[in-house]
Design brief:
Shape: globular
CATH topology: Hypothetical protein af1432
Largest sheet: 3 strands, mixed
Number of domains: 1
Radius of gyration: 18 Å
CATH superfamily: Hypothetical protein af1432
Distance between the termini: 62 Å
Number of strands: 3
Order of helices and strands: HHHHHHHHHEEHE
Strand content: 5-15%
Strand order of the largest sheet: 1-2-3
Number of helices: 10
Helix content: 40-55%
Length: 229
Amino acid sequence: MYVFLFLYVIINNMNYEDILKSDYFNETYKKIEELKKDFYVNHGFIHINGVIKNAKYLADIFCLNQKQKDLLLIASALHDVGYMLGRENHASNGGKLVYEFLKDKMVEEDVNLICRAIACHGGKKEDDFLCPISLCLILADKLDFTKERYKDDGKEHENLPLFKSIEKVILTKEKNNNFRLKIYTTNKELFKNLNNNYYFEKLFEVFRKLKNVYSYEIKVDFIEFKSVN
């Protein structure tokens, strides 16, 4: 009995730092970086670090408890492993791959919460936002679009100047379920017309779903970035 309890505590105490040190994490994202090496948007370690950073402050904004935060950070670290099987359905495929990885390492209830968040991190349905862990992962992923994620390797891409101009992205909570997203850019002119921008169309669609589910209002400000130097 005591041995069982001891093992349960060990299994249940796995955290995202353990994930980051694992061979599975490092070997998987090295392969993904190789698979997507010709794509101008990083889906490897740079992106994962950005999503984890976002998840930490979103967990506080949306008042997640400590257990929910721990599971969110694990989901953030593993959310894109589905790219091993291709871009299409990478979220649902990722949920399945992560379940196989975690099923013997954590209690089933926690594994299911993590995998559900990964499977719906695209935020395609309003039901995807009902779990606080999933909600925060969706936003953590979608808000990772600062310049560090985009590489200028001489290849032309219509969105590259826009994203390379973004210095930082900050979501803050205001009164009465209102939020403000501040996007700091070195060139505000690039953001005058976003009607046909695929990335921002998806981002604003996520905001509309949040409003439908929770009545959250998210206002977006594009702010001229001024260097302190």
